[in-house]
Amino acid sequence: MKKVGIIGCGHISDTHIKSWKKTKNSVIHGLFDLSTELAEKKRAKYNVGTVYQDLDKLIAECDVLDVCTPPQSHFDICMQIIKAGKDLLIEKPVVTDVEQWKTIKAAVEEAGVKLGVCHNLKFNLSVQKAKQRIEKGEIGDLIRINRYFLTHPDYDRMLKGDNHWSHKLPGGRWYETMPHELYITHFFAGESVLDNVSVISTDRATVGAPADEVCFTLSNDKVISNYHYSSNCRLNKRSIELIGTDGTLVLDVLSDMMFLDRVKETKNKRAFGILFIEAMSRVLQALPDRISYFSERMKGISPHTRIILQFDAYLDGKAPSPTPIEEIDFVIRYCDIVGKEIDAKLVKS
Q1: Mean pLDDT, 10 residues at a time, over the chain (349 residues)?
Q2: Which of 7, 66, 278, 315 has a CA 20 to 30 Å removed from the CA of 233?
Q3: Reported pTM
Q4: d(Cα 295, Cα 301) in Å, to the nearest integer?
Q5: Closest residue by Cα to residue 23 from 291, 325, 319, 256
Q6: Closest Cα to residue 122, out of 272, 261, 327?
C-alpha cells in the first residue's frame, strides 16, 4: 500500500480524505497544516493517519503527497515534493505563474515522478456521459462549446468579503474557476487559441470580481468555444452546451445532469413547438439520469473520488493519468493569458 500525505486541512481536504479512503492501493498516512489544531480535527473526524508538525518529515515518510493548500503556496510545496522524488496530486490551479509551471514541469520530467491535478468537473457524470455520446457520434461533429457561469455574491462564498485568496489572482474570482472551463475545452475540443476577451465593470462589481461581466472565446479549426462569466445573476446557473452537426448536449453543472437534444425542425413540428418537444424529451431523460446520479451519491462517489481512484490506479500502472501533462499545460498557459487580459481590459476601461 502506498502511504499518502495530505498537505492542507481546509475546506477541500474533506473531499480528498473521503476519496482516498475508497482507494485500493493507498492509505492516508499523515496530515499536515500550518494549524495543528485544524489537522487534528480532520484526523479525528476521519480516523486517519498521524498529524505531522514538520512538512519535511511528512514528505520523507510518504509515497504520495496530496496538496490541498491555496495556489499561492503550491510552487514551493510542489518543488519540495518533486525534489524528494515523491508522486503528487494537487488542487487546481497548480500555480498562477507560467514560469513557475515551466520549472515544475521540467522537474517532474527530470525526477520521473507522477503528477495529477484535480480537474474535477471533467469527472462529473454528465461530462463523462457527454464524452461517450460524442465519441459514439450521437451529435455528429462537435462544432461549438458554450459555457455559462452565472453567479452572485448571495450564493458565492468566493465573492463575499474582500479577503478570499482568489481575489489576488489575475482576473480575480474568474481565475479560480477558469481551469474548469479550459480543461473542459481541451477534453472535448483539444488545443485551441484565444480569439478575444470582453469585460464590463459595473457599479455592482465586487472586490472579488472587479470585472463583473466577462466573455472570452477560444477556437481551433473545428470548434469555437465561448465563455460567459457573470457575478450579477441571482439564478446561479452553471451550464455547458456542446453543439454538434446532428444534435446538442446540454449539461447542468450544479445538478450534474445531461440532456441530449436531437429534435430536427419540420413544418409539422412547428405547431407543437420545437422547445416543447425538446422539453418532453428532457422529462423522459431525467428519470434515468437522476437514478444514476443518486446511485453514485449513495455510494459516496464524487467527481474528486473518480479522479483520485483513477490516480491511484495510475500510480499502480493500471490506468492512464486522469490529467495528462498536455492538458495541465494548456490550462495553466491560458489561465495566465486570459486572467491578465481581463485585468488589462479593466485598466483600459
Answers
A1: 95 94 95 94 94 96 96 94 97 91 97 96 96 97 98 91 85 93 96 97 93 97 98 94 97 96 79 82 92 91 96 95 96 95 86
A2: 278
A3: 0.91
A4: 9
A5: 319
A6: 327
